[in-house]
Fold:
Amino acid sequence: MARLFADENFPLPAVEALRRRSHDVLTIHEAGKAQQSTPDDIVLKTASADGRAVLTLNRKHFVQLHAKQSSHAGIVVCTFDPDFEGQAQRIHDALKSIPQLTGQLVRVNRPTT
Structure:
């Protein structure tokens, strides 16, 4: 399964749900970098150096970063969804459909009602 790096704004319940689906998810808190106002480009560089795709709700900035530098381990941008299990399942399904995450920008949106 995917190796992911969840930034500070990504919800922990969704991280835990992804782990139950066998994804290797490291949070920025677990990496010892929480509450340091780490710039997004450094988050991306840190994740990529560890072979992890960034997992974030900060779509605007990470989409811009991807446009500037596509040499990274992947970026998964999501909309906020309080249905953490559903969000994790959509992320899981999206990642299963991608043969190689490196250099990819993956968008996972909450379903519209």
Notes: Residues 3-108 form a domain with the Rossmann fold fold (CATH 3.40.50). The first strand starts at residue 3 and ends at 6. The mean pLDDT is 94.
